[in-house]
Amino acid sequence: MKLIIDQTAIDEVLRERESKENSNLFLRVTVEGGGCSGFQYKYEWDDSEHKDDDSIFDKVVVIDPLSLKYMDGSTIKFHDDMMGRMFQIDNPLANSACGCGTSFSI
Predict the structure, then answer these.
(1) What are the chain's domains?
(2) Beta 26-33 vs 39-46: how paired, if at all?
């Protein structure tokens, strides 16, 4: 499975690690059923022990195998603009997405 972590996302995770003084902090991304388009992304800070089947990307992002199959070829970015500060995923498997940027369908 291929996943690209943009430098903006890497920098944000590293900034969060530094601000919380926690070098074990990762961004965990999961795909769940729901949202206005069928699936939605969930982002959470995770400093727990990772499961054996978790995939770690660029030493900053953790994704479970079920979520990863819905994200193959995606790029994770971080945006900081007038609309707010947020992670965003460009997913080539999504054939539609809602305006919030966290919900999609395949």
Answers:
(1) 3-105 (2.60.300.12)
(2) antiparallel
Residue 12 neighbours by CB distance under 10 Å: 21
Question: Which burial class, exposed, middle or buried, applies to 75 when counting CB atoms under 10 A from its CB (0-12, 13-18, 19+)?
Answer: middle
Per-residue pLDDT of the chain (106 residues; tens, 9 = 90+): 799 999 999 999 999 999 999 999 999 999 988 766 678 889 999 999 888 999 999 999 999 999 999 999 999 999 998 878 999 999 988 875 555 555 555 5
Distance CA(4)–CA(68), nearest Å, equals: 12
Per the structure block, which two tokens stand in for 51? 């499961």
